[in-house]
Amino acid sequence: MEQKPYIITGMPRSGTTLISRILDAHPNSIAPPDPYFGFFREFRNALFEELGIDYNKEEPLHDYFYGNNTHKKHAIMNAKLEIPLNRNLDNIKDTINSFAETSSPLVIPYVKKIEADDYKSLLLALYRALKNAYGDNSTTHIGFKTAWIEEFFHPLYQSLNEMKFVQIIRDPRSLIASRLKSTQNLRHDYPLDFLVKNWRKSVLYGMYNAKYYSDNVYVVKYEDLVTNTKEEVKKICRFLELEYNEKMVDISSFRDGKGNTWTNNSAYKDTNTISSDFINKWMDVLTANEVQYIEDLCNFEMMYYGYNRITKNNIQRSAFQSLNKDSHESDWINQMDKPIQMSEAELLKYHVYNDPELDKYSNEFLEKLFLFPEIPDIADEPKVR
């Protein structure tokens, strides 16, 4: 690619949109929000079909804990984008545009004109479509924001080793509280243990990718971004090889994917500033039982990223309870992830990590608990930021 490609990802409500607006405000960078989730679903389905893996084309991305669907995780990690399109290109483009329509509709006319014969050429064409829709001759960096896709870094890197990922992590209590406050405006009403497992998945992929692909993956904490904005944005710029510009911290310069003035989409109130006021708002939103549950089940990952708990450890109780509330959940959550069986495995994870004889466990067993067998060793190393 002539321009430098990047992707912003993380859990929904973690701050992905804020980072995309920051990077989009740079005169030489574009980062439209949520144009291409459909591409990743299409690529995954084509990959599974080519490998003869049984799948449902509408199924969600899995969390892979406790040995569930590990073969699918390995398939994605070992894949490249050079896979032939598995169905009519017009249908694939329609799927992509159905996701782009809400947040980045300006790209749709350019996507409709794309010609491609495999998923690498399709992705390169999608980047060119973004430049045509949102960029100009001064554009040197082309990115986009899409949540949930941490696991796709590996096939992207295998085929485009100049690809860079910016991943944002947020305190799980804050993220889940924000999600609960925003449910009325969101597409899916996710149960609590679904959010817990997928937050852990996101964080573990971030730990692994940042360790072994540090030139291509950068992890930033939401709390650092909103507290020390200029300093953190400069770090992101150095990672992307993009010269810092003051417009990146001036929210009046921010535009949404339709070209309109952007307002910070906080779950608590609209604001025209980048604010740290809501970092601890979760204390007013979550019940004591919810806080206990989140802190017990996310303890390992929270400690790694410096999120201090306020409850005493009660993993024995939390592992065997469910705080899911009756809700209008999507059918695919009911079918694919409910009931979510975490109990014995969560106890195992806690005790295994604290076992002084960690070496006695097989890599296969550690992968079931931590997604990657290397994670316990990574957790014991000092972080370099």
Quick synopsis:
The chain is an alpha/beta fold and 385 residues long. The protein has 19 helices and 5 strands.
What descriptors fit this protein?
single chain, 385 residues, alpha/beta, Rossmann fold, 5-stranded parallel beta sheet, 6% strand
Which superfamily, in CATH terms, is the homologous superfamily? Answer: P-loop containing nucleotide triphosphate hydrolases
Per the principal axes of the C-alpha atoms, what is the gross shape?
globular
- Identify the strand order in the major beta sheet: 2-3-1-4-5
Helix content: 40-55%
Number of domains: 1
CATH topology: Rossmann fold
Structural class: alpha/beta
Order of helices and strands: EHEHHHHHEHEHHEHHHHHHHHHH
Q: Could you describe the 3D structure shown?
A:
The structure is a single chain. The protein is α/β, with parallel strands linked by helices and 385 residues long. It has one domain: Rossmann fold (3-Layer(aba) Sandwich). The chain is 46% helix and 6% strand. It has 19 helices and five strands. Strands 2-3-1-4-5 form a five-stranded parallel β-sheet, with helices on both faces. The chain is globular, with a radius of gyration of 20 Å. The chain starts with a strand and ends in a 6-residue tail after the last helix. About 4% of the residues have low confidence.
